[in-house]
């Protein structure tokens, strides 16, 4: 299995067709004894933070309060994402007690691919900037959607009543009245994944037809998408990494995350402060040379 299978930017036409957006066999698939592939889960999305009672609160705006169906997600036009304020940071997640499982050896050093992803995420010569960024965002979203499908049945409202990334980071959602509220993690993630799906299927945001120009706010939309994807990464690392270990998927997951962060660093998609819940892990990967 080659990581280069994810990069289809070479030897293709300048503009993508709808066929290019059909889901392919993704490289981050399970090779564990269960013989179960990564299951796809359809799911929703938005953004902005505050700090309460020593806990970091990130507020996201919601286009709807109920999880939409697959058909509505593909057809409904998403609302624009509000600009985030800069979040406060807190390292208590890693210093209050013993380190989380994903920071312990051998798991923190487990990877599917040796070396960094620098050359994989760099813009190839003669490839359009917007084309390259949209391709990578689309494919990373597809991988994240499938990974979430693996553990989604365990993300219940009873077990995870809030969308947290450790004991000191909590992501809030703005309802239609503008009030910041706590949502169960499953509902928050469903909103985020559905919103991203709507974005990448919106021709005015991610044009796929020949001659279609990328809009002026295209990079901003990619940053909002990357920020919300990071929050799902953070939630899974802090709450469900043990399940990935049980399925022997920790190497796939770590390499996928390193790939994602490498893209974010290369194109400045996420502010470092937003990465606070996973900064120690990112720094560890940087020391290992997985992220440059």
Automatic annotation (TrEMBL):
Q: What keywords tag this UniProt record?
A: Cell cycle, Cell division, Cytoplasm, Kinase, Metal-binding, Mitosis, Nucleus, Phosphoprotein, Transferase, Zinc
Q: Which GO terms describe its biological process?
A: budding cell apical bud growth; establishment or maintenance of cell polarity; RAM/MOR signaling; regulation of establishment or maintenance of bipolar cell polarity regulating cell shape; septum digestion after cytokinesis
Where in or outside the cell it occurs: the entry states: Cytoplasm; Nucleus
User: Which InterPro entries does the entry mention?
Assistant: MOB_kinase_act_fam (IPR005301), MOB_kinase_act_sf (IPR036703)
Q: Name one GO cellular component term.
A: cell division site
Q: How does it assemble?
A: Interacts with protein kinase CBK1 to form the RAM CBK1-MOB2 kinase complex.
Stated name of the protein: CBK1 kinase activator protein MOB2
Q: Which species expresses this protein natively?
A: Clavispora lusitaniae
